[in-house]
Design goal:
single chain, 210 residues, alpha/beta, Arc Repressor Mutant, subunit A, 2 domains, two-stranded antiparallel ribbon, 8 helices, binds 1,4-dihydronicotinamide adenine dinucleotide
């Protein structure tokens, strides 16, 4: 997947979130500048992103919320339910499980896995925790599409390999190691430490320039 496509999908997901709230508030129209402010892009970028959709907007009224939602939602397949598993139920894994529960109705963490016997066969935040030895069979049988890895770095690649072999199509990896995946699998690598380091670097640079 190209980087530009990746970014475009992120923007569409955010537009949709904004429009969903507008819809819930009973609003009928949304302006491109509102969407631009919400996402942090220019109104021109919003208009370009929406050019290929059948949404009849006008400069006076903006885009009609109803057809905006239907069009973009159908493009993003936001009605289809995606099964997700999480591997590594430690500090971060637990935080994700508690945060995520029922937040996005179409995305369901159907089970979590850990190698620690003490943590297995329990329920955490409404999600069942199984032993990691059951990961392959579970993912294959349940046709799980996405795996979230929150294990220490030294086991992340092994977990990714099991997930891929079992048929997973997307991985979100929080472990600070770049895992290798085939082209048929989408990888989202999230390195929080790197983001903080990068921000610190730019903050110091900007401060030095003043
Ligand atoms: P943790 O030590 O609290 O949890 C790791 C969990 O993974 C434990 O429950 C452990 O039993 C399990 N585990 C270990 N090997 C496994 C395997 N082969 N299969 C299944 N489960 C296994 O660690 P924490 O803090 O939750 O961090 C997890 C990962 O996320 C690490 O790679 C860390 O660098 C990264 N991370 C953590 C952040 C945080 O705020 N805690 C922030 C950003 C990244």
């Amino acid at each position: 997947m190209r980087k530009s496509e990746n970014k475009a999908i992120e923007r569409l997901l955010k537009y949709l979130e904004y429009v969903k709230n507008k819809k819930a508030e009973g609003q009928n129209y949304v302006f491109s500048h509102e969407l631009a402010d919400f996402v942090g892009v220019t109104p021109a970028q919003v208009r370009q992103d929406l050019m290929d959709f059948k949404i009849e907007g006008t400069p006076q009224k903006g885009y009609p919320v109803e057809s905006f939602f239907d069009e973009v939602c159908s493009h993003l397949k936001c009605d289809s339910r995606t099964k997700i598993v999480l591997v590594g139920v430690g500090n971060l894994g637990k935080a994700i499980l508690s945060y995520f529960v029922k937040r996005k109705p179409n995305l369901e963490i159907v089970a979590a896995f850990d190698s620690d016997q003490e943590k297995s066969d329990r329920i955490y935040s409404g999600t069942k925790i199984l032993n990691v030895s059951e990961l392959y069979n579970f993912v294959k049988k349940e046709r799980v599409k996405v795996g979230i890895i929150t294990t220490p770095a030294d086991s992340a690649q092994d977990i990714a390999d099991i997930l891929i072999k079992a048929g997973i199509r997307g991985i979100v990896n929080f472990a600070p190691i770049t895992i290798k995946v085939p082209e048929s699998v989408f990888l989202e690598q999230i390195d929080i430490t790197l983001s903080i380091e990068k921000t610190a670097y730019f903050a110091e640079k900007i401060a030095g320039e003043k």
